[in-house]
């Protein structure tokens, strides 16, 4: 096989790998958002924007590699991307202390450890050394094609699964409670033991088997750690059972807050069948009700800090 064909094969393989990485991250966008948010660098809204821009970049770079346009720029971006990703993987345990075994290079669909991902990047870097042999698609519309690719990949990532702040502007996702049902639930002895009527409290209402509840629980835990919030100001009410509750905390790797489990019918009547819900209480009075989409990080933190 000639050097040109070898370079072409490696260039296409690299392009397909970047596209697969972008697509699988996007198909598990909720988990990818949570993974980046756990680094405690950006607030939730900016995290969601960063996630989608990263996915758009990877997808766009993959398309440029396959098409063979702007070969010099594409090679530079390929090397820089792989080198930066590898440096990140090497420094991540030291800088961020994130214990997730999955590096999320391919979302949750293909799970790689840090070592496996570094090895993958090394192989890709070796392949990238030979893509210059493949030649290029020489067209005077190369710059225009690159711009179109950038616009299409970015628009796609923000339209199909928009960030929460955009989603809530388009669709009304406000949550409400059944007042009588919530009041009846609050009268239960196990719920009274949570001491929700004294001071400002954040009440998290979850189902033990709900993936959105698990993602929200991780977000709340990150907020507590990131802003140094008092855990005694938080409480959780679940519907489920003790076995599933233990699995919930194992899956989310979150410590248990003040918690109780109520009967499913009581829970679902109070929440009108919705979960998760995050309720801000001031001496038992409801101040705000959030769900997984509308949860406002800055308002929650401000609410607790003004205690």
Low-confidence stretches are: none
Helix content: 55-70%
> How many individual β-strands?
5
What is the domain tally?
2
Q: Taking strands numbered 1, 2, ... along the chain, how are they ordered across the largest sheet?
A: 3-2-1-4-5
Rg for CA atoms: 23 Å
Could you say which structural class the secondary elements and strand pairing correspond to?
alpha/beta
Cα separation of the termini: 71 Å
Let me know the largest β-sheet.
5 strands, mixed
Give the overall pLDDT as a whole number: 91
Q: Can you count the helices?
A: 13
Strand content: 5-15%
- Spatial shape: elongated
The string of secondary-structure elements, in order, is HHHHHHHHHEHEHEHEEH
Fold blueprint:
Blueprint: H1 3-27, H2 29-37, H3 44-67, H4 71-95, H5 114-128, H6 142-160, H7 164-170, H8 179-186, H9 189-192, E1 200-207, H10 211-227, E2 234-239, H11 242-252, E3 258-262, H12 264-271, E4 277-282, E5 285-290, H13 297-305
Parallel strand pairs: 1-2, 2-3
Antiparallel strand pairs: 1-4, 4-5
Helix pairs in contact: 1-2, 1-3, 2-3, 2-10, 3-6, 4-5, 8-12, 10-11
Labels describing this entry:
Glutaredoxin; 307 residues; 10% strand; elongated; alpha/beta
